[in-house]
DNA sequence: CGGGTCACGTA
DNA sequence: CGTACGTGACCCGC
């Protein structure tokens, strides 16, 4: 690979008809038309889709190709050619001139050529662009465009969702069709193209066509050897030779038309504001749509203002060195990458002595300044992880290479083994996924800009490198650090007209700049120990959990799905019968009509937007008050049942869809930088909200099972962690004693609060105290408490007063949390995780109250999250140290699920329990209860 | 198609 | 008018 520092302009060529078709069929025409009946769905869709592509690809030149009415030379060859396409509905055809007018107004060039198709215009533009040294992107849903693909031309081919455009390069074509882009028209000629009404050889699809092409080299050669091909398919081929020859002539795109434009004419960004406004007015586009479109097509015009905003001053544009072989990489590393700091004891420090943990080794800014940066480009999704390219930046130098290239492996292994301790990355967990896909291991890193950014501002949403760069490099961090001049003006980040290698290098440079910016801030806040000893090791554990995935019993899930689907359908039928008509039970809007208009029921509550709520609580209320045996009663009963089972059906469905066919397991992604409190979250799918509260939903847990080679699942969870944290942090003797006594906690507390002996506490009293205890950490109001317990506000107030009389220090502690947060602006967990609450001083009472509740909750929920992270690190290490194969597979905030191997049940259970119980030393014991079973449900306890 | 809203699952 | 999340369905856009 020869990374080049020269950047090239990008030309975007768009298949106008293909995009218009796509837009037309994606958007319901009913929703988009002007008052006088002109359809606008294709116009709207066309422009929004195009603006999306322009915003992501940021091309320098744009040309839109259109077909011209009337025939082309192809019709003379093939009478039925595009017979299907001529049948385009009038509603679409009438919009094409509008699209072209809009493009003109927006300053985007569109081109057509009489007697030729848009495809020929595209082919010509792409060829011209290539000749002028452009990187060419062709946006088209027409596979004929694949023949244009080469090293300089990429086709953006829309997938099921328009937004996931597939970047079809030569490798992608070969992977999908097993022929080169140049051979693709041969393949298409054999196969035919149904959407263009072109028949191929009957019975021959992509597979056979590719087989023949690879066997004989080309279509010509296949035709030449047609007699040698046996079987039914050979026969079919011989019978259709003329058709195939014709197909091949028709699908060859013309690349040398005289279009009367040059590539330089295809600049854009100078929209005619008046013309646009007038046209959009006629189309009755809303204000928001207008400004959005105008802005995205006008970026170049107001570049003076905008581009400065997105330039990143802290970035050093590196000198790129060229690699020729492993030896040159080795020498480069020797020269530029510093070895790990010998004095530090590495990121994975022991957490065994967490009790004496005193946040040592807080310095990181100096080390980060001397560190080197690795950026890996690829896919970090567990199950499909892949590494495409990697760049290392050290000082002002950079190299780029293919990490999966075996020539570099020994060198890279040595590098990571010995010097990862002086390496910065953006996303350690993601890097591990990609490096592993490339066959590399990585022991530890010095710094992670994603995790660091999260610790600095956990409310900032957006873990992508771009978002972090915008947030932390563009904007000063809470008024601190006047940003010592980085010396260089840097490059503009909106320069996307660069090859992947260059982009990889640029990203590495951004990570390096981010690391230099964030490390001093982390150090100033004394958060490096939190990053190094908790977040980074947690990333590693999560990486393993994601990679392993959770094993499920497909047959069991299928069975549950059928069960829920059946019940759901039955309830739907009953509800519709009672309603006297068919309706969509999943539409709150339709439900509102039936309930509150047709049946005349009295609505209880409104939603924010003014419609009447149909949530379960409201329906339950209506159900309870409706007359037994009435239509409404029958309807509501069925609706409630439908809600429940249909929800369960959906949950099971998403689980089934998430099963990785390669291993039959579900690989969730645990996001580590999302929640404002420090908890993890689980996405794609979310395995942290599998039903557990009622029997029917809990059944779903029986679908989670030990995988091959494992015999049981262990479920280990903390009892009342948050309350125990409150006991410790408040220092309230009564509450501490309540936990130390080992008695039934809520019963014990109730006896104190109500002043009765423990064995005389009624279930009702216990329940009230339990609700009160849990409500505390949420900032529960007496109003909320009364509502939840169904008691009067007075009774709730009395309960609260008695509670705080009994546990006075808890009260003081909770008050102090808010008071301190108001003073400092933030709250802090046991391990120094911060969360900022600017709204504590808001003049808006609602916002202020919400901030107060957040400030109450964040340190408690956050400390619990810290503790669980430590527990996970310790559990993972304990299992490894004991050389067990049992492994942690899931975390659900206060619970770990472990896959147990035969013969390890007792030992692994004891190790995990111990790891959790001794994650931290509090004034109260941490109680962990465990259960073992052949599925997750049976492992419950 | 993409974003907002509603409803609802978890700790 | 307790905290923290993620997902799926519907509906709208003009």
Automatic annotation (TrEMBL):
GO BP: any one term: double-strand break repair
SUPFAM superfamilies assigned to the protein according to its UniProt record, in alphabetical order: 5' to 3' exonuclease, C-terminal subdomain, DNA/RNA polymerases, PIN domain-like, Ribonuclease H-like
Domain 5'-3' exonuclease span(s) in chain numbering: 7-269
InterPro entries the UniProt entry points to: 5-3_exonucl_a-hlix_arch_N, 5-3_exonuclease, 5-3_exonuclease_C_sf, DNA-dir_DNA_pol_A_CS, DNA-dir_DNA_pol_A_palm_dom, DNA/RNA_pol_sf, DNA_polI_H3TH, DNA_polymerase_1
Key word Nuclease present: yes
CDD domains xrefs: DNA_pol_A_pol_I_C (cd08637), H3TH_53EXO (cd09898), PIN_53EXO (cd09859)
One Pfam family, short name: 5_3_exonuc
Cited SMART domains: 53EXOc (SM00475), HhH2 (SM00279), POLAc (SM00482)
Catalytic activity: DNA(n) + a 2'-deoxyribonucleoside 5'-triphosphate = DNA(n+1) + diphosphate
Domain DNA-directed DNA polymerase family A palm: start-end pairs: 697-904
Broad EC category: transferase
Keywords on record: DNA damage, DNA repair, DNA replication, DNA-binding, DNA-directed DNA polymerase, Exonuclease, Hydrolase, Nuclease, Nucleotidyltransferase, Transferase
Signal peptide feature range: none
GO molecular function, one term: DNA binding
EC number of the protein: 2.7.7.7
Similarity-based family: Belongs to the DNA polymerase type-A family.
Job of this protein: In addition to polymerase activity, this DNA polymerase exhibits 3'-5' and 5'-3' exonuclease activity. In addition to polymerase activity, this DNA polymerase exhibits 5'-3' exonuclease activity.
The protein's name: DNA polymerase I
Gene source species: Bifidobacterium italicum
Lineage per the UniProt record: Bacteria, Bacillati, Actinomycetota, Actinomycetes, Bifidobacteriales
